[in-house]
Amino acid sequence: MDAGTLSTTALGSPDGVGLWALIAGADPVVRAVLLVLLGASVWCWAVILDRGLRLARIARKATRFEREFWSVPQLGDLYRRLVKRPDHPMALMFVNAMAEWHEAPKSADPEAQRNLLDRIGRVARLTVERELEVLERGIPSLATIGATAPFVGLFGTVWGIMNSFQSIANSRDTSLVVVAPGIAEALFATAMGLLAAIPAVVAYNRLSRMVDAYAARLEAMADELVVVLAREFDLAKAA
Question: How many angstroms separate the CA atoms of 237 and 239, rounded?
C-alpha cells in the first residue's frame, strides 16, 4: 500500500488514520524501524522488571542475613544452616568464605593465620565479583538502547519525510492528504524511539545505583567477616 492508497482509505475515512492502518500503510523501511524499536522497548521493560525485582529481593534477604550474622552466638551455626542452600549472593559469599575457614588447618603461627585470612578475603572477593557479573546482566544493554533508539527513530523520521516529498513529486499535489501519511509515520517513528530510549536511560541509572549499593554491602560484609574470624584467632591466643 503506497501513500496515495493510504490517503484515500484511512485519511479519507471519517475516523482519520488509525494506528494499525498507519503501520500497515507505512513504508517497509519505516515498518522495519518500528519493529526494531518495539523489540528494543519490550527488551528494555523485561530487563527492568527482571533486574529490578531481583535486586529488591536480594536486598531484603541481605538485610535479614546481616541481622542473623550479628545475632548468632557462633558463625558455625549460621554456616551449617546456610551451607546447603545459599539463596542470595551475600549468603553464598559467606558460605564460600566459611568453607575455606573450616577446611584450612588451624595454626598458632601468626604468618599462617594471616595467610588464611588473606585466602578467605580473596575467596569472598571472587564470589562477590562473580555474583555482581550475574546481577549486571542485561543492564548495559539499557544504556545501548537509551543511546541508539532516538537515532534509529530519527532515521525512520527522515525516511518518512522523504516519502512525503516523493509523494508530492509523483502527484504534483501539496495537499495535506498527500503528505500526511509520510509525515504521520515519520512522527510515529520519532515517538517510538523516545518511548524506547527514555525508560532505558532512567532504568539504567536507577539499576546501576542499586547494583553499586548492593556491591558496597557485599564488600563491607566480606571485610566484617574477615575481622570476626581474625578475632577468633585473638580469642584462641588469649585462651
Answer: 5
Identify the helix (H) or strand (E) that includes residue 101: helix 89-103
**Which pTM was predicted?**
0.80
What total number of domains does the chain contain? Answer: 1
Mean per-residue pLDDT, 199-203? 96
Of 106, 80, 124, the closest CA to residue 220 belongs to 124
Give 212-220 contacts, CB < 8 A, sequence gap 24+. 214/55, 214/58, 214/59, 214/62, 214/89, 214/135, 215/128, 215/132, 217/59, 217/62, 217/66, 217/90, 218/62, 218/89, 218/90, 218/93, 218/128, 218/131, 218/132, 219/125, 219/128
**Residue numbers of the domain that contains 102:** 3-238
Mean of pLDDT values over 28-56: 93
